[in-house]
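As the next step, I wrote out a protein sequence along with its fold in C-alpha cell form, included below for the reader:
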Amino acid sequence: MTDQTKYEFHVHGMHCNACILMTESELGDLPNVTYVRSNLKTHSVEVVGNFGDKTPEEIAEELTVPLKPHGYTVSVEKQQHVANWEDFKIAVPIAVAFAVLFVVLQKTGLVNLVNAGTVTYGTAFVIGIIASLSTCMAVVGGLLLSMSATFAKEGDKVKPQLMFHGGRLVSFFVLGGVIGAVGSAFTLSTSAAFTLSVIIGIVMLILGINLLDVFHWAKKLQPSMPKFIAKYAHGVSKFNHTLTPLLVGVATFFLPCGFTQSMQLYTLTTGSFLDGGLTMLSFALGTLPVLALLSFSSFSITNSSKSGIFFKTAGLVVIMFALFNLANSLVVIGVIPPIFNF
C-alpha cells in the first residue's frame, strides 16, 4: 500500500516559532512522512504520509514518539489549554525576591546590570540563562540532541560536544562583532537609537508574556528569523562530518529564538565590533551551563512537574527587564526623570 493520505492533528506544547521548526524537522525525518506543516496559530500539524491501516489515534501516538523528548504531544482531539494561575502564588514571590536581589546588587555596585538604558554584559548573561531554560531555546536543544545521537552511534561523545560549544561561543563573538561593526558604519540619531531601544523592550516584553503561558494571543506577535534561513541552519545537524558539530554551533546564531534576536538587535546599536562581540558572547555564556548539561544528560525543564512555575517566574523576570529598558529609554531622551538611581 503506497497511498499517501493527509491528516491534521493537534499539537500540545507549542509556544513560539521555534516550535514550528522543531515539530516540522522531527516529523519530517520519519520514513513514512512525505510532507509536514505546523501551524502555531491553531497549534496543529498537517501531515501527509503512508501509515497503512493505522487509525488516526495510532498515528498520533506514533508522531508523538519523536516529539515527546522536546515537550510536545500529538492528539486527534484538541487539548484544552490550562493557564494554571495557581503557579503565580509561587512564581510572583520568587520573581519579587529576584527583583530585590537585583536592586541590592545595583546599590552595592557589585553587579552593574543596568546602565543608562543600555544592555550591559551582565544583563546579556542573565538573559542568556533565562533563554537557555525557556521553550524558545528548545530548538537549539533539539539540534544538540540530534547531533549527539548521530555521533554517539560511532562512539564519539565528548569531542563533538566540545566542538559544538566552542563553535557556538566563537561564532557568537565574531558574528556579534560583525553586527556591531555594521552598526558603526552609520551613526544612529537620538531618535533612531530610542526607537531601536523601544523595539528591544517590546520584543522582550512579548517574550516575557509568552513565557507566562496564559495569553495565547501574544504568541502571534513574537518575531522570528525567516523560516528558510532557520531550516537551513537546522538541517546542518543532519550531516555526518567531522566539522558538523562546529557548523551546528555556528548555525545556532541564526535560529528563531526571540531572546537571541533581541540581543542581536541591541548589538547593532553598540557601533563597535568589540562591544557587539562581547555582548553576544556574554549571552552565549549565559546559555552554556544548561546546554552543556543537556549535552551529557537527559535534562529538560519542559518535562519537569514544576515547569509551569519556572516559566512564569522567568516570564515575570523578563518582563521586569523589558520595563527597565523601556523606562530607561524614556529617561535617556528626557521624557521622564530618572526612576532607578543606579
